[in-house]
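FAQ

Q: What does a record look like?
A: Structure on top, sequence underneath. For example:
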């Protein structure tokens, strides 16, 4: 049996950042992670950090390598009808930017910090169930070399992603789930080729959406809209490059060059929200509580905002300041979550081909993109949401 103050399930960005923030406040935690260290450190996922996430990492001593290797971008490009339109995020928001830094790089940094502080992470150890959530000594059950074992804690942080055990441990009837599925998926590649653009390119095209992103000056990250449930075997590298080339080309002669594909995968595009994000002594954070379509680049940033709030709430509790922040945790998080759901849905709806036969919808999207390209007010709205809402100030109800 292991005893700790906060039992954290999952060593993704949510669980690891929470462990780091709690450690800085002198609060003990144990992180339990189903997969190996190597697996979580090499899993290629999101890559865009909002200004608030960057500021949080820097102000808590977790931003050292990100400051050196992250790519600070002051704008993004929208590409439609063969034209390019740059959205100057920096100018439109009075000085806010985004930083392109792979989620797995952040995960490596947070694991290194955790190891340096001597804090435990139990890798290759899956939580199998939770008990006592309604009392004051909840516990996480797991198996230790085939023998049942448990982590007894004051609080449990369910940071175990979309397919974890935490959400499932909440009794049916005490939470509501809000779901939306989109009629397409994203096929993503990592390629050993310098990014063909200095900034991210979001492309609207009659064959479907495409996104040009990057991880470093040598590595590109590209995505294209494909059918849901598509088989990767149907997508040899040359087909992927051809499709990306077609969707990203411009009238002024932009042409994408192919390069070696290091990794490819297909991810569903969906939304999910669990309300409330708490049951008794269990607090959900990150993908365990909510999923957004990737178009707005919000998933990782929402996870960071959740655990920042949770660490503040737990700190106040342990300092004898009461349970008010724990009690308002779910409402405060959910206000940001629904803003992000709206923004991600809007970006997704504007840029993807939902029904190849729906030409009205295609023309409507072009009208919307034209409005964005011509209207400062519309561009400010995109820029403010894309660079992210401030971490503070979401406490008051709508
Ligand atoms: N026991 C222990 N660990 C578990 C269990 C379990 N039963 N089930 C899942 N996990 C682990 C997973 O192996 C994973 O490492 O929980 C971790 C959850 O991490 P993420 O999926 O990265 O979720 P989160 O930390 O909330 O980060 C959200 O991930 O999917 C992206 O775009 C999303 O950027 C966002 C970020
Ligand atoms: C990425 O680089 O992985 C990325 C960038 C922007 C998005 C989604 C993913 O909207």
């Amino acid at each position: 049996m292991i005893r700790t103050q906060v039992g954290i399930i999952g060593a993704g960005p949510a669980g690891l950042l929470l462990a780091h923030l709690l450690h800085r406040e002198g609060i003990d935690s144990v992180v339990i992670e189903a997969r190996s260290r190597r697996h979580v450190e090499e899993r290629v996922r999101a890559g865009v950090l909002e200004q608030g996430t960057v500021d949080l990492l820097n102000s808590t001593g977790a931003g050292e390598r990100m400051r050196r290797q992250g790519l600070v971008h002051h704008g993004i490009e929208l590409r439609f009808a063969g034209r390019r339109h740059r959205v100057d995020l920096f100018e439109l928001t009075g000085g806010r930017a985004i930083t392109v830094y792979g989620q797995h790089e952040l995960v490596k940094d947070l694991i290194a910090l955790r190891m340096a502080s001597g804090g435990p992470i139990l890798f290759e150890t899956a939580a199998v169930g939770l008990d006592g959530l309604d009392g004051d000594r909840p516990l996480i059950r797991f198996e230790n070399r085939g023998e049942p074992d448990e982590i007894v804690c004051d609080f449990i942080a369910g940071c175990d992603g979309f397919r974890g055990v935490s959400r499932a441990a909440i009794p049916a009837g005490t939470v509501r789930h809000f779901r939306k599925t989109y009629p397409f998926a994203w096929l993503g590649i990592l390629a050993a080729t310098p990014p063909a653009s200095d900034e991210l390119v979001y492309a609207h095209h009659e064959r479907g959406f495409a996104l040009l992103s990057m991880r470093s000056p040598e590595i590109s990250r590209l995505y294209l809209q494909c059918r849901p449930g598509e088989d990767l075997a149907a997508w040899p590298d040359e087909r992927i490059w051809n499709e990306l080339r077609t969707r990203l080309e411009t009238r002024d002669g932009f042409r994408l060059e192919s390069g070696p594909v290091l990794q490819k995968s297909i991810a569903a595009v969906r939304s999910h929200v669990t309300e409330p994000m708490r049951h008794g002594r269990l607090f959900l954070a990150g993908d365990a509580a909510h999923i957004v379509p990737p178009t707005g680049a919000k998933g990782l940033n929402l996870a960071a905002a959740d655990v920042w709030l949770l660490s503040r709430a737990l700190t106040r509790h342990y300092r004898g300041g009461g349970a008010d922040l724990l009690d308002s945790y779910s409402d405060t998080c959910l206000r940001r979550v629904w803003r992000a759901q709206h923004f991600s849905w809007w970006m997704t709806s504007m840029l993807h081909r939902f029904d190849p036969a729906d030409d009205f919808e295609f023309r409507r999207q072009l009208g919307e993109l034209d409005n964005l390209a011509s209207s400062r007010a519309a561009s400010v709205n995109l820029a403010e949401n894309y660079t992210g809402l401030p971490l503070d100030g979401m406490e008051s109800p709508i």
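Q: Is there anything notable about this one?
A: The CA atoms of residues 301 and 307 lie 10 Å apart.
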